[in-house]
Amino acid sequence: MARSRILKPEFWSDEKLATVPREARLTFAGLWTCSDDYGITKGHPAWLKAQIFPYDVDLPLTEFRKWLADLERIGVIVPFTADGESFFHISNFSDHQRVDRPSKLRNPDCPPDILAKHSRVCRDSLATDSRECIDELQMLTDHARRDSVMQYASVQLEAKRRILERKVVPLGEIRGKDSSK
Fold it and tell me: Does residue 26 register a pLDDT over 70?
């Protein structure tokens, strides 16, 4: 049974998801609605295609399988089998979906060894992304700090120049603001 899910605004600007075709991104959102309250969904491609794209009869199953493979490649879904059936575990599902009253389990849990392997790959990827983010943030912070210091020095220099010229003016005028308001 399909469930209502929340898509956060960050979904559309996620850099990892941006590496896959738009159809794969739409498929990923559709997988959320097919999953149980624990982020597990049946993994049979024909069943999923019928759930997510019921009216797209012209959509070849081979194309849909490519989108699932793209999502697996970037690590947002993890395939596993249990009792001879295929399933997908949606990575970080609980970080993005808050389920107040979860239903009873209707799908098996993803095996811990698969989660551990996938988690390590994600951690390595996140560590690299985090380092790049930190470097970029540091560069932006340094630039903003330099601009702020330069602006402050300019205001102070102007104030001292006017004092030396015996022209004392309100500080608001030095900053370029009209102090009469």
Answer: yes
